[in-house]
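Section 5.1 Outputs to date
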Amino acid sequence: MTKGKVANQSQGTMLLEEKMKITVSEIEDEGLRVSFNEPIEGNSLARPMGDVKAEFFLTRKASELNISGSISGRVCLQCSRCLIEFQRDLELSVDLTYLPIEEMSTEEIHEIGRDESEIGYYKDDEIDITDVVKEQLLLNLPMKPLCSDECKGLCPVCGTDLNLQSCNCKKDEIDPRLSILKKLLSSRKEN
C-alpha cells in the first residue's frame, strides 16, 4: 500500500512518515484519509519553516484520483523589492484530480483544454503525497512576495534599503531607451 512507515491505519486513516507514496489501485471505495505533518525541503523561492501540515481525503473512480483537503505551514520568502527575508503563513484548500500518465495523449502536439489545466498525472500506479504538498505550496506562493505593502525597496542607483534610510541619489534620471520620447515631448511644447 505504501512505502515507508505507517503509524496509524485504522478506519481508512493513515498517518505516514518517511516516503508518502500511495498505491492508487489499493484505495478502497470509501476513500482514504491521509494526515501529513512533516518538514519538507525548500528551494530558491521558499523555505518552509518547521513542519508543513496537510489533511487529505483521497477517492478513486477507476484510475482517476481525487485529492481534497488543506495544507498549512509557514514559509520564508524573499521580498521582491528590498530583498530581505520574511516569514508568511500559508493556508491552502486543495481539490485536485490526477490521472495515470499513460492516459495522457500520445500525440506529439496536443492543445491543453481548459479542463485539462487542472489535471495532474501519476506514474506506475503510485502518487507521492510529499510531491503533491510541495507542488501546491509552490503554485500558491505570491508572484512578487512583499515584506509589506508599504515596502520602498532598494535605491536603483546605490542599493540602499529605502525602508531603513534615505539616500541622496539623483532620482530623475531617464532610462536612455526612453530619452527620445522626452525630446519628442519637448519639441511639441515648443510648437
